[in-house]
Amino acid sequence: MPARRSAAFRRALAAVTTLPLLALAACGYGSQAPEDDASQVAAGAEKIDGLDSVSIGYFGNLTHATALVGIQKGFFQKELGGTQAKYTTFNAGPSEIEALNGGSIDIGWIGPSPAINGYTQADGTNLRIIGGSASGGVKLVVDPDKIKSLKDVKGKKIATPQLGNTQDVAFLNWIAEQGWKVDPQSGKGDVSVVRTENSVAPDAYKSGAIDGAWVPEPTASKLVAEGAKVLLDEADLWPDKKFVITNIIVRQEFLKEHPDVVEAVLRASVKTNAYIKSDPDDAKAAANAQLKADSGKELPADVLDPAWKSIQFTDDPLASTLNTEAGHAVKAGLLEKPKLDGIYDLTLLNKVLKAAGEPEVDDAGLGAE
Fold it and tell me: Residues 97-113: pLDDT tens digits?
């Protein structure tokens, strides 16, 4: 049975990946982010390792704001010198993992579940998690006329972004902890789990197709702007209210061949997170400006402000929480017990943190030898 469930999950991931790949077929695995002045190589700048460019992937989500702000403010290109940073945006984790596996990107910002799935499906040969980026920013938001307490969620239609994605796993685990039963594949049971793309969720809520959603920011705040209320902040379910929502991954081959380039990207990431903490208002504006540059749309203040407040930006990958999230996926029946030994390599991150006078971080015993 576990093998059949795992195989079904892989087929579901493949199906989910197909849509964004078809939509973006003309430009590869993702959409090329437009270049601006901040992404231009300075005249006379020296290439790192003689490398012409490095390809970096990320999502147009506030939970990927380290990437958004770092690109907008030019931190990545500054650290890379004459090696050009080329950016690609993605809508879903499976498509970014495929791009990484295919060599279309070298480094990427991504959620924990796609990283776990990608690593285990490749038998630990394709990627390493090399740094953290964000914690939190996930909420259960509901129609206050239909759901007034947590027990009222039973029998209702609640959206998650994608079968087996980070929020889907978290919601299925929460359902199980309530003592309710749901088939993880179909989403049918004591709660109807409706897999709905984040971009579609607000319209689905307005039409009554869903009664609420367990979603990341800014989708949660978009739903609140449509009249929903926050019933539960996922951070409240975790020790110290911290859990990984975004990591930085790299192709193992690229890490081996170009460690100085990877170190430069990590140095820029650490500087970006420090900037976010030192000037959150300007950083928030920079993230919104990059969202507009990438998609043509910026977030209104009534969505941007509450969404930004719920996310913590951190260099720590919070490795112990990733291990816990993998356990949740196993318990939900979406994943066989994964072997995650070697998924982390925090050597370069700790080198950068030490140079910056910051404390080093640990890999919870899941580091590469």
Answer: 999 999 999 999 999 99
